[in-house]
From TrEMBL:
SUPFAM superfamilies tied to this protein: FMN-binding split barrel
PANTHER family: FLAVOREDOXIN, FLAVOREDOXIN-RELATED-RELATED
Keyword Flavoprotein belongs to the record: yes
Entry protein name: Flavin reductase family protein
This protein's record includes keyword Flavoprotein: yes
Cofactor(s) listed: FMN
Keywords, ordered alphabetically: Flavoprotein
Residue span, Flavin reductase like domain: 15-157
InterPro entries attached to this UniProt entry: Flavin_Rdtase-like_dom, Flavoredoxin, Split_barrel_FMN-bd
Superkingdom of the source species: Bacteria
Any one GO molecular-function label of the UniProt entry: oxidoreductase activity, acting on the CH-NH group of donors, NAD or NADP as acceptor
Amino acid sequence: MPPAFLPVALEHATRLLNHGPTVLVTSAHDGRRNVMAAAWSMPVEFTPPRIAVVIDKHTFTRRLVTAAGGFGICVPGAALADLVYAVGSESGAEGDKFARHGIVAAEGPVLGLPMIEHGCAAWLECRLIREPHVEQAYDTCFGEVVAAAADPRVFTGGKWQFRQDNGGLLALHHLGAGRFVTTGPEVVAKGAA
C-alpha cells in the first residue's frame, strides 16, 4: 500500500509543475464530474501560488470548471500512461470518465474537487481566477493554488525525488499521438543544496 499523500506547503506548490509534466485536470459541478489530460500547464506566480493550464473553451471540462469556479491538477506517474491517453481522447459529456475507467478520487480539502492519488505523484486544488476577457478569448485558465499534496516517495521537503526505484511515479511528458517520455534522472548543480 503506497503511503498517504502529505500536504505540500503552498510556497512549494508551483514546484509540482515546474518540470512541465502532463497533468490530469479534474472538475465537478452540480453532480457531474470529469477528468481530462492536458499537456500544457505551468506555474505563473509564487505568492500566492498561481498556475496556468490550457483547457479548450468548447469542452465539457471547461464548462464544469467555469461553473464550479475551480479545478484540480493531478500529476500522473508513468504507470498511468494508458489512462492518461484514454481520458485525453474521449469526452466526459457522454458519461462519467471516473466510473468508466474505475478512477478513485478523494475530495479536495478546500473546494471539494476530485483529486486522484492512486498512480499520481501529486495534486493541486485551484480556485479559478476570473478574467472575463481572457476566458472569452483564450483557452488558458488561470488558477490560484489553495491546497496541494504529494506522495512522499517522490516529493518531500519541497523537492522532487526522481529515482528509478519510484519509476511508476515518474512524471509523464507528452510527445503527441499517445507517446510520452518520463522524467529522467536528477542532475544536481555544483553548490546546490
